[in-house]
Amino acid sequence: MITLRLNHQQHDFLQSVGDIGDLVRAALQSSAAVPPSRSNPVSRTPVSAHTSFSRTPVAAHVLEPGTGKAVEVRAGQIFRVTQIEGHQCVDLNVFALGDRRERLHCGRTRGMQGRHPGPGDVLWSNAPWERPIMAIIGGTATTDTQFPFCSRLIYSAFFGRAGRTNCQEIQNEAQREYGLDPWDIHESLNLFMHTATGPDGEPVIRRNVARPGDYIEFVALLDVLVVPNVCGDDLTNCSNFGMRPVRVTVEEGRPADLAEAGSAVQRSVVLGLPDRHEVPGARPLRRDPTYEADFPYLPLRPADVRVEVAPDLIDRFHRARNTDLYGDDEDAALRDLTMSWAIERLGAFAGNA
Ligand SMILES: [Zn+2]
């Protein structure tokens, strides 16, 4: 016997593809032994030398799967997202606290900084402001600006599933704390999302390579409301077929941090930023003191499946399981083998494996 450890959402999806026992056995039967060692494409060395010095803490939150949190970050403060268990994609929205109409513009950021902004780059806001609102000053993480947030549409269109965790509705609930409406959600900066170019030049999502302790940190260039959320996708390789908690902190920036942020802004333009014009009718963001978080589709319930498998399939599993990614976590490795096989059969996300 072997146990496939799932949550109820994953169980419901697999059951819609076929008999779960048959899926596990077929996935193991078709699995190929992996080479003994592969290189990790992500550097584990912190990019910013300043991260070894402690800063004055302002706020700290652990974001549980299926949740997000709106966090105020004042100009000059550091916003940091850190992996606890690894493997986790995090979506990030950003709004100007002084005017909710100004927000992160992922397309402009992609155009100005490339598809994968990292340390030394800045995040740009929408027109008519179009200015750097945060600077990335350190991190060991990949980012992506190409893929839109996962939404009810994605799970319905590609997986035939409705009523399950998704970044759209998690963001909606988190930003509600500051009176932002569902239509205020904007394209997310995808933190820890590992993307590459597919055979036809199209962007594809690869397995998540974030390890415990991997992080990314920003300096706020104006007072902002940042809204990170644990990506609601537990069906694909985006977060390696699971959802795991992440840590979010706000700290006071030190002079060295502000200098790095200033350098990033300087590098972001060649000949200077346009003159600032006041945009009348500012709509400041304020916290709703009556807000109580009520994230949809929670709690996630365990839905393990015991599967009868022949000894030769157990041997196959031990040869095929991805120890580079999952170490000795056999549950995660079996979930990966089974769910990626099922998705491939479904043809939904064939290009992203
Ligand atoms: Zn998502």
From TrEMBL:
Domain DUF1989: start-end pairs: 62-225
Signal sequence residues: none
Annotated region described as Disordered, given as residue ranges: 31-51
Name of this protein: Urea carboxylase-associated family protein
Organism name: Paractinoplanes bogorensis
